[in-house]
Amino acid sequence: GQNIDQPTEMTATEGAIVQINCTYQTSGFNGLFWYQQHAGEAPTFLSYNVLDGLEEKGRFSSFLSRSKGYSYLLLKELQMKDSASYLCAVLDSNYQLIWGAGTKLIIKP
Amino acid sequence: GAVVSQHPSRVICKSGTSVKIECRSLDFQATTMFWYRQFPKQSLMLMATSNEGSKATYEQGVEKDKFLINHASLTLSTLTVTSAHPEDSSFYICSATNGDSGSYNEQFFGPGTRLTVL
């Protein structure tokens, strides 16, 4: 079956750095997405990786290793507004998005 | 950027009634729209994919007679929850793309609809 694993919850301190990991097993691979979702709101797009390596976009970076079925989202200079759930999603061979359960990130002052 | 709206944002209804949720793409033509359901602390679960002018494709386990989807135009899709029951209470989210479903185009999400069935 298809499976995406990410930690349920993480806690970090304002101003620090946090890395959220995601491992996946899917039927085919056409890219991996990271979305941010605040409570009661729809997800918003953060990043898309289809080739191995690191993609940097401001305070957020996303890394992909296709051979290991692994990705991480790196958040730097954490701000209180970064408190949210972070969803990892993989596009499978049918171009269907398979979603992880999300990682709830709690930022403490 | 591409904007998707949903209406209503929140609805409370009695058990046995039907509820219609609208999803609109405001500044682009959405050839494909997706309907998701999300229970508390769980991930998004795809319910169905709809292409304008054709019948929706439902995911396994989703009752097509209970969750009626209509994608009558390139800017509007509706989800009707028929004879709603408390277990249907959830957060319903739509998304839209402006490409065909055979290749990926970024999905733009609506703000979601919180359904509570009493």
Number of helical runs of chain B?
Answer: 0
How large a portion of the residues of chain A is in β-strands, by DSSP E?
over 45%
Strands of chain A, count: 11
Integer-rounded radius of gyration of chain B: 13 Å
What separation lies between the terminal Cα atoms of chain B?
A: 37 Å
Q: Secondary-structure element sequence of chain B?
A: EEEEEEEEEEE
Mean pLDDT of chain B: 89
Number of helices of chain A: 0
Sheet/helix structural class of chain A: mainly beta
Percent helix of chain B, as a range, is under 10%
Shape of chain B: globular
What fraction strand of chain B?
A: over 45%
Number of strands of chain B: 11
Poorly predicted residue ranges of chain B: none
Helical content of chain A stands at: under 10%
Mean pLDDT of chain A: 94
Give a quick account of the main beta sheet of chain B: strands, pairing sense, barrel closure.
Answer: 7 strands, mixed
Q: What assembly state would you assign to the polypeptide chains in this entry?
A: heterodimer
What does this entry look like structurally?
The complex is a heterodimer of chains A (109) and B (118). Chain A has 109 residues and is mainly beta. Chain A has strands spanning 3-5, 9-13, 18-25, 32-37, 44-49, 53-57, 60-65, 70-75, 84-91, 97-99, 103-108. The N and C termini of chain A lie far apart (40 Å). The model of chain A has no long low-confidence stretch (mean pLDDT 94). With 118 residues, chain B is mainly beta. Chain B is 0% helix and 50% strand. Chain B has no helices and 11 strands. In chain B, strands 2, 4, 5, 6, 9, 10 and 11 form a 7-stranded mixed sheet that branches. In chain B, strands 1-3-8-7 form a 4-stranded antiparallel sheet, with no helix packed on it. In chain B, strand 7 (67-73) and strand 8 form a beta hairpin. Chain B is globular. The termini of chain B are far apart. The mean pLDDT of chain B is 89. Chain A binds chain B through residues 30-31, 40-45, 48, 87, 89, 91, 95-97, 99-102, 104, and chain B through 41-46, 91, 93, 95, 101-104, 106-107, 109-112, 114.
